[in-house]
Amino acid sequence: MKPKAVVLLSGGLDSATAAAQAIADGYELIALSLRYGQRHDREILAAQQVAAHLDIQDHFILSVDLAQWGGSALTDSAIAVPQTGIQSGEIPVTYVPGRNTVFIAIALSLAEAKGANAIYLGINAVDYSGYPDCRPAYLSAFQQLATLSSKAGLEGSAPILIAPLVMDSKVDIVRKALTFGIPIELTWSCYQGDADPCGRCDSCRIRDKALIDAGRADLATAIGVEFWSSPYSPKK
Questions:
Q1: Rounded to whole angstroms, how far apart are CA atoms 99 and 105?
Q2: Which candidate, 12, 82, 123, 132, places its Cα nearest to that of 235?
Q3: According to the model, what pLDDT value does residue 157 have?
Q4: CB under 8 Å to 216, separation ≥6 — which residues?
Q5: How far apart are the two ends of the chain, measured CA to CA in Å?
Q6: Cβ pair 44, 188 in contact under 8 A
Q7: For 5-24, what is the mean pLDDT?
Q8: d(Cα 36, Cα 109) in Å, to the nearest integer?
Q9: 196: number of Cβ within 10 Å
Q10: Mean pLDDT of the residues in the chain
Q11: pTM (2 decimals)?
């Protein structure tokens, strides 16, 4: 019998690739996706499509409404999603206070209830927007919490937090996704809540640049191709 792992599956490229890595590592997956009041709720459909592609049988979709108190451009319609590129040294308004802490805590509960040995996360500390909860130090601290706060941890078998992409560049992640056969066109990264990716938010910019650098400009947005294949170079 295969060991079990929970994967936090947002529907984005990173989480889909992390899920594929977990399968390659020999785990039977339980997927967890969360509606948290995000304006880009479209990513939940992407998560369902990726789960189906990877033949994940157990997929939990929970609602935890962080939009009730806002504090982020992703959960508060009064705060605009930045369109001018990443500003070095600044944590952007797309940071959602406590999001990963809440998500991993729920994943830990699910993992312990289902007897899962690991929790796979698509967290990345290289090509990211400066979020404090995407760093190795954060994951290390949460691993300590998982050990101290759970029955499984006290028995010496706390679920292990695995972030296989944490030190990868975005182009490396694209290449891994292609190797795993991830249908990149089904994944969703855009922070806007529109029917099509905007091509201008931080997430679209990072994704499009990586796709083009990996030789898959056909999967980038039209705006992304225009940005990165012309003399114009948006801020990053």
A1: 10
A2: 82
A3: 87
A4: 174, 178, 184
A5: 46
A6: no
A7: 98
A8: 17
A9: 10
A10: 92
A11: 0.93
Q: Identify which has the larger pLDDT, 9 or 230.
A: 9
- Whether the Cβ atoms of residue 23 and residue 120 lie closer than 8 Å to each other: no
Q: How many residues does the chain have?
A: 236
Q: Which residue has the higher pLDDT, 13 or 91?
A: 13
45 contacts: CB under 8 Å, gap ≥ 6 = 11, 188
CA distance 2 to 174: 27
* Residue among 165, 142, 162 nearest 153 (CA): 142
Pairwise CA distance, residues 120 & 215, whole Å? 27
Strand intervals (E) in 64-218 = 118-120, 160-162
180-213: pLDDT as tens digits = 999 999 999 999 988 899 999 999 999 999 999 9
Residue with tokens 């959960």: 75
